[in-house]
Amino acid sequence: MTQADARLSVLKTYKLYVGGKFPRSESGRVYEVTDAKGRWLANAPRASRKDARDAVVAARKAVAGWSGATAYNRGQVLYRVAEMLQGRREQYVAEVADAEGLSKARSAAQVDAAIDRWVWYAGWTDKVAQVVGGGNPVAGPYFNLSAPEPTGVVAVVAPQESALLGLVSVLAPVIATGNAAVVVAAEERPLPALTLAEVLATSDVPGGVVNVLSGRTAEIAPTLAAHQDVNAIDLTGADAELARELEVAAADNLKRVLRPEPPYDWTADPGTGRLTAFLETKTVWHPTGGLGVSGSAY
Amino acid sequence: MTAEHKLFAYAPAPESRSVVDIAPSYGLFVDGEFTDAADGRVFKSVAPATEEVLSEVARAGEADVERAVAAARRAFTSWSGLPGAERGKYLFRIARIIQERSRELAVLETLDNGKPIRETRDADLPLVAAHFFYYAGWADKLGHAGFGADPKPLGVAGQVIPWNFPLLMLAWKIAPALACGNTVVLKPAETTPLSALFFADICRQAGLPRGVVNILPGYGDAGAALVAHPDVDKVAFTGSTAVGKEIARSVAGTGKRLTLELGGKGANIVFDDAPVDQAVEGIVGGIFFNQGQVCCAGSRLLVQESVADEVLDALKRRLATLRLGDPLDKNTDIGAINSAEQLARITELADAGDAEGAQRWTAPCELPGSGYWFAPTLFTGVTQAHRVAREEIFGPVLSVLTFRTPAEAVAKANNTPYGLSAGVWTEKGSRILAVADRLRAGVVWANTFNKFDPTSPFGGYKESGFGREGGRHGLEAYLR
Amino acid sequence: MPRIPTAAAGPPASLADVTASDAALRRFLHGLPGVDPVGLEARAAALGTRSIKTTAKAYALDLAVSMIDLTTLEGSDTPGKVRALCAKARTPDPTDRTAPAVAAVCVYPDLAAVAAESLAGSGVKVASVATAFPSGRAAPEVKLADTRAALAAGADEIDMVIDRGAFLAGRYLEVYEQIRAVRQAAAGARLKVIFETGELSTYDNIRRASWLGMLAGADFIKTSTGKVGVNATPANTLVLLEAVRDYRAATGVQVGVKPAGGIRTAKDAVKFLVLVNETAGDDWLDNRWFRFGASSLLNDLLMQRQKLRTGRYSGPDYVTVD
User: Fold this and answer.
1) ipTM
2) Chain A: nearest CA to B45, how far in angstroms?
3) Is C39 close to A293, i.e. CB distance below 8 A?
4) 3-state secondary structure of A73
5) Domain regions of chain A by residue span
6) Helix-, strand-, coil-residue percentages of chain B, each rounded to 5
7) CATH number for the domain formed by residue range(s) A30-287
8) What share of chain A in percent tops pLDDT 90?
9) 0.80 cut: is pTM over it?
10) Domain range spanning residue B439?
11) CA atoms of B361 and B357, how far apart (whole Å)
12) Using one digit for the tens of pLDDT, what is the confidence trace for C136-175?
C-alpha cells in the first residue's frame, strides 16, 4: 500500500432535502444503506412523519412560484439539471453501480439515460399545453379554451429498483409541468436520490419544488397519502398491498392517483402518460360578441 | 292604473302532458330486454311538483347487477370489435331519435325531475342530442385523439348518475363510453329513473345490439354493488363528494379506472367594472338554473364591496320577476325541488344560515300547496366561516360575500375544498385572464355562466373530482 | 295617477355636475357599466320565448295597438295618404269598434297640419319628426326651425334625431346642447329623441346615448328612424329599457321608450311588451311610456285580434290597406 493509498477518504453525511435545504431527520434517526452485496455504504436519514409534513409545507410554498414561472424558464431549469448531472456523471455511475449491483458499463448506461430523460422533459415544458390543450369549437358565440395546469403538490413513491433512472423518470414529468414534488426515495437504494438533491440544489430548481425523503416507504408514504394538502400521489414504488392502503387514504381528499402496472421498463419511450397524469384541465369561456351593427341605408 | 296592468300577468301556458305516454310500470333494461328485478322489488317514481306517482319501477339489486354486468361483458367482444364507423352510426341514430323525440323526452324529464319545461326543452334535450352527435363522430377517429395510434376500450363501464340532469348525465356517460367501444351498465338516480328507461327504448329503436347498454334503476345499494363488481373495468360517477370518496375507497387497489364529477361551491366574482345587467343575469342563471341543483352552480356571489349595494338591489329586483310554479308551464323559471329529502337538506342549511347570523332575503313568490318547493333565496352578510358559504346546498340559495381587491377575490374563491366552477365579471380583459389563471376550478366562465357544450371539457379540481367529460378530453376516461 | 316628475327640466340636481363640461360628460357616460353583447342578446332572446296566451295575449294585442305611433315617412307622402292613415289611427278596425285607437300618427313636419286636422278631437296625438330627419345633417338653426314649424302645424310630439356624427366624434356636450335647444323650442310638447342605434353600432354607445338623451330632457328615447339597415331590435330596445329603469331609480324621473322600424308582426310586438314588463315593469305598460314606431304592425295586430275573437285565422283582405 502506497502512502497515497493510505489517505483516509472523507465520507459524506447524507441528508434529506426539504425546502431547498439539507436537514437531518428531525427524529435524529438514520438507517444503514448497503450495496447490492450487503456491504455498508452509508447511513441515510430515516425521515419521520414530521419530516414528511415539513416537506409538504415546503412543496406547497413552492407551488405558486414554480407553476407561475414561464414554461420556457422551467425548461431551462430542467435542462440545467441535465447539465449538472452530466458533470457529475462518474459519481453517479459509481453510486448507481453500488446501489443496483450493476457493472460499470450498465450503470453508465442508466446514468446516461437519466441525463437524457431530463433533456426529454426539459423540452416538454413549453409543448405539453399545446398538445393537450386548445380551443374548443362550441356551438355558440363563445371563445372556449382548455389549458392544462399543474395539480399542485404531488407525492412520489419512487421506484424501489431503479434508483436513479427510475427516480428521474417519475420525478421529472411531475415538475416539468409546474407541480412540486415530495419524493419518497427507494428505501434500500436512497443514495442516488439524496445525491440528486445536491444536483437539484445547484441547478436553479427553486427550493421546495423537489423534496427528497429517505427512510421506510411504509412509514412515510401513508402520511403523504393521507395529507390533506397533497393533491396527488404516484404509487410507482409501492407494492400492491401498500398501494391499496395509500389509495384508500388518498380518497379522503380525492387525490389524483397514478398507479402504473409493474413491471416497469425505464428504458422504454416514456410517452406523455406521466406528464399528463398530474395536470388539471381548466376550461375558460368568454363571449365573443359581434363588432356591433353598423351601416346606413341612405 | 296598476290593476289594469296586472292583466299582463301571463296566462297559463302549459306544455301538453299528452305528448308522453308513461307506462304504469317499468322493468330493468338488461341484455336488450325489460325485466323484473330478481327479487321482485319495485319503487315509485314521483312527480316532485305534485307528488303524483308517475310509475312503478323495478328496483335493481345485487343479482341484477350480476346479470347486467354479465350481459355487458358478453356484448363487449362484438361491440368493441365493430369498426368504429359502425359504432358511430349507432350513436348517430340514437342522436337523431333523441331529436325526434325531444319534445316527449322534455315533458317526461320535467315531470320526473320537477325542472321547468323551458330548461328541458331549451337546455337539457338539445345538449343530450348534441352530446351523442359529438361522440358519434369520434368513434372512427380515436387514433387521432392523442391517446396513441390504436387506443383500446377498457371493457365494461359501471356508471352511476344523479337526478339533477337525468338524461344529460346519461348522455355524458354513455356517449363517450360507447364511442370508444365499451359497454355500459348505468344506474340512474332513484328519484329520476324514467328518462333512462325511455332511453333504453331509444336504444331498441336504434337497433343497438343487446347488452351494449344496460339500465338498472335503483338505489345506492345497487350503485355500490355495480361499482364494486369485479368484472367492471371502469367506474364513472357523478354525484356528491361524500359518495365519490366512498367509491374511490371502494375501487382502491382494484386497478379499475375511475372518473368522478362531484360537488362544488362555485364563486361568481363580480368586479366594480362588470357589465352589471349581464352580471345580474349570470348570477341568476348561475344559482337558480335548475333550482340551484347544479354541481357547478355559482352558489357564492363574491361582489366587490364598492358596488355591492348596487348589484344586490339589481339582483333582488330581478329575482322578483322570477316565475315559480308548474314546471310544465312554458313561462315557469323556477320549478320544484327534486325530492322531499333534498328539500329538507336545503331547508336545514338555509336555517343554519339564519342561525349563524346571515341575513336571509326571499324572492316574493307564492309556493304551490303540494310538491316540493323552495323560493329563490339569498343570504347577505355571509362570511367564509358560515356553513352557507362552505357547504354545497344544492338548491336555490345564494350566499353573498364581498371583497375589496382582485387578490382577495381569488383567495376567497379558492378557499374551499371544491374546485369545479367559477365566474368572473369584469370588462377589463387582462383582469379576466389574470383571475381565470389563478382560480382553482375546472371551468371558468368569464362574463357568462353555466354554459355547456359537448366539445368543452367539464370537470373539477380538488374535491370536485377528477377526469373530464366532454370534448377530446372526455375520451381519455374510456380508452387505454 | 301619481304625479310623475317631468323630464323637461333637464338633469336633476343630483346629476347637474355631469353636464358641466365636455370632459365631465364624457367621464360620466364612459363610467356607465358596460354592456356585454352576447349576454344582452341572450337575455332578450330568452324573454322572447315567453309564451303569451289567451287573456294575456288579448291584453297584449290591445295594448300594442294603443301604443302604436302609426307612421308614414316617405318622400311620396301626400295629404291624401296622411288623411287615410289618420282615419285608420282613429278606428283601426272598422269591423270591430272595440279595437283601441293608436297613440299617435307620425309624419314629416310639412304634413303635421293635415294630421292635426284629421285627428282633431280623437285623442290620437300628432307626432312629427324634426331636426332634419332622418340624417340630422343640417345647421342647428335649421333644426330648430324645423321643430318650430312642426309645432306651429299642430304637432303634439316631436321626434328629433341626434347628431350621430358629433356623438361618434366624441362631442357629447354638443349633442347634449342640441337636444337641450330642441327641448326648449318644443316646450310643452313631448320630445322623443332618436339615437339611430344602427349607426351608433355598439350597445355601449346606445347606453351612453340613452343617458345623454335623458339628461338633456327627453320624454322618450327612441331607437331608430326606420331608415337604416338595422332598426329596433329586442336587444337594443332592452338597453333603452334598462336605461330608463336605472334613470328613474337614480333620479325619480320616468322616461318613455320607443322602438321604431322593423317591428312588423304581432308576435314581435308581444315580445317587446314582455321585455317592457320584465325589465322596466308595469309602470311602462302604457302608451304614455311606451310606443311602437310602426305601420304594417297594426294590421297584423288586428288580424290576431280577429283570430282571438273568432277562433279562425284572418287574412289581409279583412284589414284595411292604406
Assistant:
1) 0.96
2) 32
3) no
4) helix
5) 30-287
6) 45, 20, 40
7) 3.40.605.10
8) 94
9) yes
10) 267-453
11) 13
12) 999 999 999 999 999 999 999 999 999 999 999 999 999 9
